[in-house]
Amino acid sequence: MAIIKKNAFAVLNVSTWKMFKLSDLFDVKCSKYHDPKKYDNGDVPYIARTTFNNGEIKRVSTTEELYPANCLTVGAESAKAFYQKNPFITGNKTYRIYLKNRKLNEKVALFIATLLNKEGEKYNYSNAFVAEKIENTVLCLPVDTKGNPDWNYMENYIDKLYSCIKSSVETLLSMVHNSKGGAIVDVKSSFYIKELFDVQLAKGDIQLKKVDLGNIPLVAPIMTNNGIVANIKDGDGISEIFNGKCLTVDMFGKTYYQENNFYAVSHGHVNILLPKFEINKEIGLFFCSVLNKLLAEKYSFSVMCIKSKIKEEKIFLPTSNNRTPDWGYITDFIENLYVPIKKCVIG
Questions:
Q1: Using one digit for the tens of pLDDT, what is the confidence trace for 33-47?
Q2: Contacts for 340 with CB less than 8 Å, ≥ 6 apart
């Protein structure tokens, strides 16, 4: 939201808003599991427990009855809410949320999804956002003169947000394209992940309830906070601490750059990518952008990003004349992006 902080409407006065239990406004429905391997490619969205691509992991061909559109979907472990504007089928533990007494439109859905996703930050693989918890979620919403949720206010707010973001993005893109180095990466060669990184998994079985809080990050399969679920004092006596300046890729394909030393949860839920080259923050952020784009549509709870798969993924990089990755070019590219972004965000 910082990019639009100068706009008065972006600063919301919530003093007159009211609290509503989600189940008083929405029906939360459990969904049937559909095995994605049994479907050919087609046009029907298959929604699962992923944090990417609006929850869609593929499009399938089917003649069976579809779930109605105009609802929100939330995956139990991903705890991420998405608006579905087309009929769809689902994977396991994917919940459908329909507005009572009226049709849910995209703008109201995005307003509600933002609040749900904030609530969802407290949930993860070991503490899933299941139907009962979704139903008991309390939302703070704007109200009309009768004390009912002001759906028109929500629509108008998202409308204004669209306009402002569109203008800001156009300004940002203009700055980026006019900045030193340009915005186009000259991609020349492909590399397997295993050529560039040693891929490891954590040992032990760190459980938050059994360790003391401290200042060492514990990385887990979550979509926020750089993958850090908590800061702990020590491991469990078996788990090793990993050196910083590396990447973590969780079971859903979400990639983060870890600057500092950290622990990671085990059972194959987090892949640790240890670089075979000298990495810096800029190179790490470049890899995060590329890998998040590459892996987003491939992996979910039903198709996990495990060690053997991530090693065989192929990534394209700019190279020097001898097919060596051009780390200097990558570093300069990211650094050149900082300046126009700061100008657009800070002003």
A1: 999 889 999 999 999
A2: 172, 175, 176, 178, 179
